[in-house]
Amino acid sequence: MIVMETEATMETAAARCWIENRRVCLELTDGRCVSFPAAKYPLLARAPQNLLEKVTLRLNGLALRWEELDEDIWVGDAVGGKFPRAGRTLAHA
Q: In this model, does residue 72 exceed pLDDT 50?
């Protein structure tokens, strides 16, 4: 397995997003393609496939949104590997 470090900034934006084998896939505006397991986020880990696939880009590609799940993820955080820690919620962060 090859591990590649991916640099992310607050300006890291996605041009498109999709779900493949329960992975969130992103094509970034700089041409890079990255993906991460939906299981990295508790709400996405529990989501049925049909709701997981309803991901949209918001804020000019800076954020991912799952309206029916009420989940938002900054693209820069996901690309940079800044995933929520197990057992913590945003209310307690």
A: yes
